[in-house]
Amino acid sequence: MSLKMWIFSVIVATSVATVLASPCSMQNRTSNLLNCITGIKTRFMDNDAFWFGSQYATRCPLKGASYDPKCTNLRPDTADSFGTRFFQSSAIDSLDRYLSVRFESIGRNYTGCGTTYTWDGKERVNIDVDPLSDDVETPWFVRNTPNITWSSNATDYYTLIVYDAGYMICHGLYVNVRGNDLSSGQVVKEYHGPKRSFILQNPYIFLLFKHSQPVNVTAELKNVILNPNWSQKWPIYDFAQNLNLGDPVAVNWVVVTGDEYGAAMSESFGLFFCPDFSTKALHRVPRPFFSNSTQLSVWLDVTMTTTSLNYPVCCNKFTFGAGARKLDPIGNRIYHTADVRSEAIVTYSIKKAGFLPSNFTGEMHSIVTMDPDVPSPTVGTQERPLLHGLFINIRDGNFSTGELVLNYSGPAPPDNKPHYYYFMLYRHVVPLNATAMPWYSSDPSNGRYLFDINRLVSDHNMTLVGATWLRATTDDYVTYRLVAREPGNEASLCAKYPGYSKPCPTSGSTKAFVINNVPMLVVGLCNIMFMAFFALH
Ligand SMILES: *[C@@H]1O[C@H](CO)[C@@H](O)[C@H](O)[C@H]1NC(C)=O
Ligand SMILES: *[C@@H]1O[C@H](CO)[C@@H](O)[C@H](O)[C@H]1NC(C)=O
Ligand SMILES: *[C@@H]1O[C@H](CO)[C@@H](O)[C@H](O)[C@H]1NC(C)=O
Ligand SMILES: *[C@@H]1O[C@H](CO)[C@@H](O)[C@H](O)[C@H]1NC(C)=O
Ligand SMILES: *[C@@H]1O[C@H](CO)[C@@H](O)[C@H](O)[C@H]1NC(C)=O
Ligand SMILES: *[C@@H]1O[C@H](CO)[C@@H](O)[C@H](O)[C@H]1NC(C)=O
Ligand SMILES: *[C@@H]1O[C@H](CO)[C@@H](O)[C@H](O)[C@H]1NC(C)=O
Ligand SMILES: *[C@@H]1O[C@H](CO)[C@@H](O)[C@H](O)[C@H]1NC(C)=O
Ligand SMILES: *[C@@H]1O[C@H](CO)[C@@H](O)[C@H](O)[C@H]1NC(C)=O
Ligand SMILES: *[C@@H]1O[C@H](CO)[C@@H](O)[C@H](O)[C@H]1NC(C)=O
Ligand SMILES: *[C@@H]1O[C@H](CO)[C@@H](O)[C@H](O)[C@H]1NC(C)=O
Ligand SMILES: *[C@@H]1O[C@H](CO)[C@@H](O)[C@H](O)[C@H]1NC(C)=O
């Protein structure tokens, strides 16, 4: 069997396996509903199923006392199951039907944490929520009111509660629904999606109650469930008791973890978790200067501001507009090297994960900029990169207090491969000695080659807290710089350029490429435009 076929069959096998693994998959619950409901009852009472269960004490030894939003827990001393968390109960016998919850969404189309996802208009995602699967969704895909159905009698009334089971927040409340048509009921609170902004798997539960008489939700009762206070531990139970709803006849839940869409929403109300997503992006490419357990706690913004630039290369002229470009680590973009050149004015800003505004009083940071992808082992390696900037001893998060040891120098990768240029933010207690920094390089006279980042970090007990980066490859501005540096190699460096000859053709036939005011979001496309242009010629 060919490798391709083998991979294909493995993929088929795993996807079939996940579909069949759950007794509540659409197929299985149709053929054996009882099996599915039994599974739901067991999971409902499992106090090891979710983050607020028995795993909580290990993950949050301080039990939320440190005001870490990831550890906030209404019932920190109890390893909760859904049953104990909502109903003070260790058994649920009332379930007798399946609550079908289906979300429909489109592919990602949002901006958050400095990146923009653009939907191509094609991807459409249908999620059939299966409480016994391992599926984990993100806020973007469950933001619309789902289609919720259940088997019903037209004469009965139903009440549906949607609740954030971890943080005890109501996400939807419909009462006096006739049959299974949600729109026939009274909307006490319209469904709103999770605003999960950090990476923690949190369940959102859907509870269906059946009653034979309509209920009246008074303002007081509305408060019980919509605005529970911290001493009122069972808002759903209290609400259901008050209205005589009995126990739920059907439940379902969807597990949601954060995405940048959620992070952007929560940032707007002062909770900031973008470092979770730069952490995730950082781990896409492992490097010897961080470990796979590195968790960033600070978001580092780096903005490059350039004036406009004209330069001739290989009988072509290029013009770049002035602009300010904020690096986008999650988008992992390839920048045109002219836009991030050495002459750029580089500005930094930092924000801590957690409650805004951040407070950096009493802390010290340093920023190391480096390229680990250098193709020459005497200049830079993965372990000992080429230094592209060094800015140290920044106190209290105030960048004007820092000492600039080495000015930022822009990318000039010679090997037609995209290199990463990392800006790593370290926190440390003991200040670094600016005059000793060149000794971390293999050549103290320039201080840049084979920079021993790991030794610097261990010598000063530095903690990596933030990271951003840009990528850049060999482009016409690099060629321009290489030709200036090695005029003897002009012919070979210029061979791929249209219209190149030595001397250049008369000015009338010289091509001019003019790119003015390149907007920030399409900067990454410049390369593609140029490459396409070259391909056409
Ligand atoms: C789901 O149903 C299939 C048959 O359709 C069965 O083979 C499988 O064991 C079921 N899975 C579970 C977990 O019940
Ligand atoms: C993506 O979102 C933008 C901004 O909200 C909108 O203008 C655009 O039409 C959306 N794209 C698609 C394909 O829906
Ligand atoms: C919800 O799902 C049901 C059953 O599949 C379907 O009949 C109904 O049209 C759907 N409603 C909406 C609003 O999509
Ligand atoms: C509908 O009512 C009948 C008669 O009371 C009952 O047997 C049946 O279980 C009910 N079905 C549902 C889905 O509630
Ligand atoms: C609901 O309760 C309120 C307050 O007790 C009362 O004023 C109102 O008439 C009741 N509404 C219905 C429809 O019973
Ligand atoms: C909080 O809820 C408890 C229990 O329902 C109640 O006794 C108390 O008065 C409430 N406190 C506030 C401030 O609303
Ligand atoms: C992370 O690093 C540890 C220790 O080096 C290693 O055992 C583990 O397999 C690594 N995990 C991944 C996902 O690479
Ligand atoms: C910032 O932190 C310092 C030291 O922890 C503290 O003294 C100061 O009051 C804090 N500032 C604000 C605005 O919270
Ligand atoms: C930042 O540091 C500079 C230089 O020490 C100082 O002049 C300035 O007042 C500081 N800014 C703030 C906001 O503390
Ligand atoms: C950095 O560049 C600026 C502007 O060219 C220059 O004035 C300064 O001396 C440089 N600093 C170092 C440490 O090279
Ligand atoms: C800083 O390093 C230089 C050169 O290694 C050394 O001469 C100097 O004493 C050091 N300064 C401090 C404060 O350690
Ligand atoms: C190094 O830093 C860590 C955290 O910043 C701290 O817990 C530890 O005590 C420090 N170790 C030394 C030797 O300074």
UniProtKB/TrEMBL annotation:
Signal peptide: 1-21
Entry annotated with the keyword Transmembrane: yes
UniProt superkingdom: Eukaryota
Gene3D superfamilies referenced in this protein's UniProt entry, alphabetically: PEBP-like
Keywords annotated in UniProt: Membrane, Signal, Transmembrane, Transmembrane helix
InterPro entries in the record: PEBP, PEBP-like_sf, PEBP_euk
Spans through the membrane: 513-536
Pfam (any one): PBP
PANTHER family named among the record's database cross-references: PHOSPHATIDYLETHANOLAMINE-BINDING PROTEIN, PHOSPHATIDYLETHANOLAMINE-BINDING PROTEIN 4
Name used for this protein in its record: Uncharacterized protein
Organism this protein belongs to: Dreissena polymorpha (Zebra mussel)
Lineage of the species this protein comes from: Eukaryota, Metazoa, Spiralia, Lophotrochozoa, Mollusca
